[in-house]
Amino acid sequence: MMSDHRRLHPAAIIFNFIKTLRESLFLIIITFISFKDDYLGWYLLGVGVILILIIVFSILSWYRYTYRIEDNELRIEYGIFIRKKRYISKNRIQSIDLTAGVLHRIFKLVKVEIETASSGSGAEASLKAVSLKDGEALRNELKNVKQVDDSAGENLEEELQNEIPVISQKITVKRLFLAGTTSGSIGVIAAIAAVGFSELEQFIPDDFYDETLELIVSLSIVILIVLGIMGLLILWVLGIAGTMIKYGNFTISRNEEELLITRGLLEKKQLTIPLKRIQAIGVEESIIRQPFGYVSVFAEVAGGSIDKGEELSTVLFPIMKANEVEDFLQKFLPEFITERQELNKLPKRSKKYYLVRSVLPFIVMLAGVGFFIPQFIWIPIVLLIGSMYLGILRQKDAGYRIDDKLLTIRYRMLSKVTMVMHHKRIQSFNRKQHKLHKKEKLATIRLSIIGIMGAGKHFTLKELDEEDSNSVSSWYSYRE
Length: 480
Known about the structure:
Elements (H helix, E strand, L loop, with lengths): L5 E2 L4 H24 L4 H24 L2 E5 L2 E6 L5 E6 L3 E8 L1 H6 L1 E8 L8 E7 H11 L13 H7 L4 E4 L2 H9 L4 H15 L5 H13 L2 H27 L3 E4 L3 E6 L4 E7 L3 E8 L8 E8 L12 E8 L3 H8 L11 E2 L5 H22 L5 H20 L1 E5 L2 E7 L3 E7 L5 E5 L2 H6 L1 E9 L5 E10 H12 L3
Antiparallel strand pairs: 1-2, 2-3, 3-4, 5-6, 5-11, 6-7, 8-9, 9-10, 10-11, 12-13, 12-18, 13-14, 15-16, 16-17, 17-18, 19-20, 20-21
Helix pairs in contact: 1-2, 6-9, 11-12
């Protein structure tokens, strides 16, 4: 019975040990660099003592951590020297997510993350290691639904099937590969690699570094170009692998009150999204995917934490054809269906504002490069031409549409994004005009909804026709 005091699975000792060791790793490395020459023996003795203390701490942390359900509350008690108690009422719980990492799957365990509306940067409560049966039983009891059978399946996918969702949709391997191919993650991986190299550079011997640099400089332009292409190809392959690992076996299901999302090859995640917490639905068309007619669908979810691994938005489906979006929404979120393609566009007189904002940084760059290193003047020129085209696209793609209680807005930074928001989910509306706007009868609007961690998420549409901005303002101000 869940009313009895329960401990986590003993494998939680391993998770506690790994977490504490990871947090201490930087200090261990720094002390090794400082004392490796003169005090290596004392250093090794100190590391041994630290490891023993970490093991003892991990065992005591596991032993002193208990949980139970009593009086419609999840009650957790923990702490080695100072005893702490946390009581979470069932009525406050927004979602209960199950995650199975590589180590979890070895022991046939899951991590249970419980979120409330007040969850901050992490979950309100996290049970690091419980059996799959106990995890499902805990989730079902907290959600006031029928307990699972003791003969439930041995993995997360089977448990999902046992819940018999009303509807579900799974991504194909072909689509998943295409999502990785067009993810545009080369830049992100390159940035991470650059930061990692800058940190490791101090550990590289000076002679080896100088000789390698001289060798690279001595190579011909053709060889450098080939090496550059090979580097980009490696980053592209890594981007594909990362996407397929993150979204492998991606499945979305819906029952009466929530969406259930499972994904991941190495770390299996099961995310629960209550329908009442969905503030807006977005359709993103990246510059890479747009020519091929592919989009991704995401949701802005109120509250929760950043531990879901979805950055600031929750991916509802990684990739699909643009003409499949309506069928997808009809199956899972029919309340957000609108005529996304028929929007009220921006007036032509707004184009110059978009162009100026896009090209101004590159005009400054052009002047600086032309003055200091004129031999590379072609680089800012190419960027300037690209920014002009991007400015035109931003003005061309932007627009809005009102459908009864739904507002659709579209904007572009690099990717074209279409957001659909329900009237009652919009927390605030702001309309502003400066002198030039007033002269040309233009206005900028800004809408805010509740986003992750309870913070505001803002959407801005610039240089609307003044009458259009007044229409949106009147629509927002109206209350039944």
